[in-house]
């Protein structure tokens, strides 16, 4: 059996984390191709339901990436995202999911290398954790 | 809703994308996606040729959604949206997919994986595009008033310019008197005219202008709102007043660094250039052996920038001393001289002809000041000199005011690393902040001399006059809307909204939330927290995002 390749969905805020991914690109910093970005205007826009839908759809990890606290383009949206993730993490075990399946990360516009490094580390972490129980091939 | 007809344009970006993943294969795949009726690959989608291919595609295939899969929306979305609009397609029906920064450039050694990722992202883009809805441009009225923070030469110039066009101006100055730094200067280089002759008529003109109201001894307490409709709370004399204004100009200037602990600074025998200006103005300079040390506290590791104005100020003051007492010996100790342009360079030459001596020192071996003398290693002569002095003048840099950070926070605008205000773009938008409706000029952004400050002030005034004279501004149609049938009037959204842009109002159906469209900035916090799922973000609604998630998961 070939090595398990985790799939990651990353909600990236338009102003910081999405821009950081752009910087990673313009700087040609390579990272594993396991992540798919979904652009939102603000991390505070990410509904808990979106995260649940993504986990339910079989993503091995879901990342919510926003601006550093104090830097939010919309003043405090990232604080709302932080509260949402904290709340949701308490409920993940009910679904039989590990805490690490959901990650919150602040990445500033200039932090392209940190974006790439974060993805690299998260892929490694999820490889150790193994496939999500909601993966299609496991559910059917 | 009529049939969805999506066109996908996949860009090679020369070899930037095409060199690292299989673009024709990706375009071929796009053609197989639901609702996609047309897909093609272009060498450069953003070129004239590429743009006309989009236009032709829209016309020939009757497209009502357009996807460009290329670089980043952060740079190219406005261009492609404009092309859609020119082809009669509502720009909100455009969707961007980033396969360069997110695929080809970061997975260069993994052609297959990069190609697959590009396909996945386009699949998600098509899923979202299918659900896009046309949005009307939103226009809001502009409050016909300008608020200017800072009453120095920059603020006075913008105030007069805007008021002379016919708009009301509120000028907020934190000190008791108007005039800023120029009040403390004697003569200005290169013309040697008196600073008072420049600043006094402007102060008078502002004081007597029927359209300008001056708030002395006042500070900005809080700023709310957005372009066209700012509420600025001014605190003066313990009283607060709210001013409604369409635009804000930051002209807060800077201040001279007080060189505490540098070169035995004591304010008596070792003084700053600004202190010297005062002595010159009062006719109180009796010293005949003067050494001026440039870059005192500037271009050092903790303050790396060049303050730009100090070289010319020092040369000018040296010339004034020399003119007053031709027998005086004046030395200028410099690391580098910044006398750019034709007039300043000419001024430097003239000062040398007058007998002012220039001595080059280095940062690693700076001069030392002791009672009655300065010891300096002359880099060009290669030996140490002992200069006898009865006055040492330090040319210290202009530094940002200590309250700049607080003001920046209230305005929600950034400062750069030295704590000067940071413009939107150093070349393309030097007088704007990234936040619409707020502008900057003068020493607030970096040290400038009077000539540059006035040029910037005139520029900032004309930038600010654009929304004022138009009377309306266009805002992004990414705003929330509330389904009145689902809303239960709980008020969570009102509590959470950082812009007070959603509020609960009594209606026939009971209390219901409603978006104040002109205030909404589109963060989506209300929609993600609504327990009834009653709030929709235009262009980022639940259905669209859920469809993207499902499309990305479907491998």
Mean pLDDT of chain A: 93
Q: What characteristic shape of chain B results from the CA principal axes?
A: elongated
Q: What does the radius of gyration of chain B come to?
A: 30 Å
Distance between the termini of chain A: 19 Å
Structural class of chain A: alpha/beta
Which outline of chain A best applies? globular
Number of domains of chain A: 1
Order of helices and strands of chain A: EHEHEHEHH
Instruction: Enumerate how many helices of chain A there are, as a single number.
Output: 5
Q: What would you give as the CATH superfamily of the largest domain in chain B?
A: FAD/NAD(P)-binding domain
- CATH class of the largest domain in chain B, please? Alpha Beta
Unreliably modeled segments of chain A: none
Under CATH, the topology of the largest domain in chain B can be stated as FAD/NAD(P)-binding domain
Oligomer: heterodimer
CATH architectural name of the largest domain in chain B? 3-Layer(bba) Sandwich
Can you tell me the CATH class of chain A?
Alpha Beta
Task: Classify the fold: give the CATH topology of chain A.
Answer: Rossmann fold
Folded structure, characterized:
- The complex is a heterodimer of chains A (140) and B (555).
- Chain A has helices spanning 17-26, 48-56, 77-92, 112-129, 136-139; strands at 8-13, 35-40, 61-66, 102-106.
- Chain A is an alpha/beta fold.
- Chain A has one domain (8-129): Lumazine/riboflavin synthase (Rossmann fold, 3-Layer(aba) Sandwich), CATH 3.40.50.
- In chain A, strands 2-1-3-4 form a four-stranded parallel β-sheet, sandwiched between helices.
- In chain A, helix 3 (77-92) links the parallel strand 3 and strand 4.
- In chain A, helix 1 (17-26) packs across helix 4.
- Chain A is globular, with a radius of gyration of 15 Å.
- The two termini of chain A are 19 Å apart.
- The mean pLDDT of chain A is 93.
- The relative contact order of chain B is 0.11.
- In chain B, helix 6 (153-165) crosses helix 7 (195-208).
- The model of chain B has no long low-confidence stretch (mean pLDDT 95).
- In chain B, the strands form ten sheets. In chain B, strands 10-7-6-14-25 form a five-stranded parallel β-sheet. Chain B has a five-stranded parallel β-sheet with strand order 16-23-17-18-19. Chain B has a four-stranded parallel β-sheet with strand order 2-1-3-4, with helices on both faces.
- Chain B has four domains: 6-135, 3-Layer(aba) Sandwich (Rossmann fold), CATH 3.40.50; 145-254 and 400-473, 3-Layer(bba) Sandwich (FAD/NAD(P)-binding domain); 257-398, FAD/NAD(P)-binding domain (3-Layer(bba) Sandwich); 480-538, Alpha-Beta Plaits (2-Layer Sandwich).
- Chain B contains 15 helices and 30 strands.
- With 555 residues, chain B is of the alpha/beta class.
- The longest helix of chain B is centred in the C-terminal third of the chain and has 21 residues, at 450-470.
- Chains A and B meet through helix 1, strand 2, helix 2 and helix 3 of A and helix 4, helix 5, helix 14 and helix 15 of B.
